[in-house]
Hints:
Bound molecules: NADP nicotinamide-adenine-dinucleotide phosphate
Number of helices: 7
Order of helices and strands: EHEEHEHEEHEEEHEHEEH
Mean pLDDT: 95
Number of strands: 12
Amino acid sequence: MRTILVLGGTGEARAIAAALDDGAGGDGVRVISTLAGRIANPRLPVGEVRVGGFGGPDGLAAYLRAHEIGAVVDATHPFAERMSWSAFEACAATDTSLVRLERPPFRRDPAIDWREVASLDEAAALLPQAGRRVFLTTGRQGLAAFAPVADAFFLIRCVEAPDPALLPPDRMVLLDRGPFTLDGEFALIDAHSLDILITKDSGGEMTQAKLAAARERGLPVIVVARPSRPAAETVRTVAEALAWLGEHAHG
Ligand code: NAP
């Protein structure tokens, strides 16, 4: 029996779990998917799921040993920085095979006024000069960076309700999760007269539509660059991760 731990919270992680559940890893494979437990009603992967943090790299290392994990797939979101570093350290400490599945970043579109920043604070500092009607799609975490921006309107789209105390005064919160359609994004931009888009460089198909809509409506886009990553072996697609597991996941 080989046990594979899939650190999840993304569509790619669910796809890996589904493929392995379907026999893609061969017989005798046990898959445990994990979620941070931040979302009240998450999209669950098929199969065995563990919810909640491990208690840092040491806690994860202990878990890897206790459950005789043969390989770890870090398929967390590109901005889940702490979990990725924790996986890197724990796998190194326990000599466990690790692959990082990281989807490619958004493709730079030369037709878009594309401004890359290193942080949400940097993005907030560009307002209101860069735009006064903001489509803010950076997720619930870190919204406090925009709280001091009083002279701009924000349409804040996220999956879970953010703490109102941490939000800018002139805002509307839209609870929704992808995939989003081009027509839907046009409708939001037009209905709220939005004049700028702020996004993380999450990449992936589920949220591409907002960039296409921004291009068509001539909105500049502020893109928060990805955080630093450990030097783990990295693949870009679910198929590549499954191929890697075929070669490495013994234990
Ligand atoms: P983070 O800052 O890297 O993680 C904070 C802590 O949460 C980690 O140290 C770990 O706790 C726990 N954790 C995170 N991901 C986990 C997982 N898959 N399984 C078990 N524990 C996990 O991550 P985050 O940015 O808060 O993201 C949390 C989850 O949401 C991740 O699963 C990620 O894939 C997903 N997500 C994040 C974003 C985003 O923009 N950040 C967007 C979409 C989905 P311990 O140290 O106690 O082990």
